[in-house]
Amino acid sequence: MPVDAELRSLDIEIPAQPEVLVKLSVLMAEEEIDLLAVSALVEGDMALAAAVLKAVNSSLYGLRGRVQTVHQALTYLGMREVSAIAFEMSLRAAFPPAAELEPVWERAAKRGLMMGRIGQTIGVDPWACHSAGLFEECGKAVLYRHAPQHYPAMLRAAASDSELCALETSAFGVSHDALGAALCESWGLAPAAVASVRHHVTLQASGQMPEALQRRGVAAVSDIAHTLMNDPDTLENRVALLADQVQLDPAACLRAARRVQEQLEQAAGR
């Protein structure tokens, strides 16, 4: 998809989607996904395969025993979660290593996993949810690469993402939520994932779905995951507020969120 012309005029470069992810996206779009083809594709890129196996064997997934191959990972975790890890590793590789970005990547991995599992449980496209979670803060990495001398100070100065967006817009003419959505578009993510990334800062700050946001299910899952990660004591009230705006069953959303929270706590304890 073409990147927004306004972003091009600001001369902020959007990284291109790696070829392996283009092929993976094609495989994931098929009605009957070929597990062997996905396995061969990921294993054909040695650096990506190594990164995927390292991620799969991390405490985030809490698997019993060590996974030795991508095919094993697919068997244990399923196609969506392994494919999402491949997207996550490729996204990280598109940007220079930086200590300031490590918290961004750590949150992305956890949020993507949570969103995918919650979405699957409540019937909201789990692949769109997972990818939206991975890409939600990626605009920060774009701006870090664009202005490595100045952007870390903005990250430290902002008390919230709303404040950060204001600083970014003042300095660069664009904020990380818009840049993240542009990166999602250029990498071929689902429109619902793009919309969630574009509007997540506004939604998190206000609790109200922006009128421009038409595909609301993924955005609601994003906000539920954000609440779980940052203010879990308010989860019940937040779910009730969101569900009313998206026509989702609040009880089902709450059960799904708490179940995913339990899964991650159990994985961390192994």
Describe what you observe in this structure:
The protein has 16 helices and no strands. The chain has about 270 residues and is mainly α. It has a single domain, classed as Hypothetical protein af1432 (Orthogonal Bundle). The longest helix has 21 residues, at about 100-120. It is globular and about 45 Å long. The model has no long low-confidence stretch (mean pLDDT about 90).
Number of helices: 16
Q: How much helical structure, as a percent, in the residues?
A: over 70%
Largest sheet: none
On the 0 to 100 scale, the average pLDDT is: 90
Number of domains: 1
Query: Strand-residue fraction?
Result: under 5%
User: In the CATH hierarchy, what is the architecture at level 2?
Assistant: Orthogonal Bundle
Q: Could you please say which CATH topology applies here?
A: Hypothetical protein af1432
Catalogue the unreliable spans.
none
CATH H-level homologous superfamily name: Hypothetical protein af1432
DSSP strand count:
0
N-to-C SSE string, H for helix and E for strand: HHHHHHHHHHHHHHHH
